[in-house]
Amino acid sequence: MDKKQKAAMTKKRKKERERIVDLLKENGTYNKSLEPLIELYLDAYMVYSHVYEQWRDEGFPATKEHTNKAGAKNQMKHPLAQQTADWNARMSKLLEQLGLTPKMQKQISGEVTNSTTDAFQAFANKWD
To answer: Does the predicted TM-score (pTM) go above 0.85?
Structure first.
């Protein structure tokens, strides 16, 4: 990777970090203790971006031809497609842990209630 590419990657990471921190601050959930989780998310974001760009540059092929040991040729899921999906899932989980998914936003704002907790609370209220 040359200096120009490295500078572009650093700039992209910094921009995404600012976006995430701004969202957390806007929600009132930013805390310094989230920094390691933010860094994990940024690492996943950078890997995802790199893999996605490679896949895009190849034209988003769904499959790739593979020759096995016996010499037979088979179509298999393209490795970049699989990696893109895997890293996307990892990023989604990290965003959920940061409270930045729609589901978590509703829980933070109190719009969504936990039905299990509500049922337990209703049962406990019978004895009050």
So the answer is: no
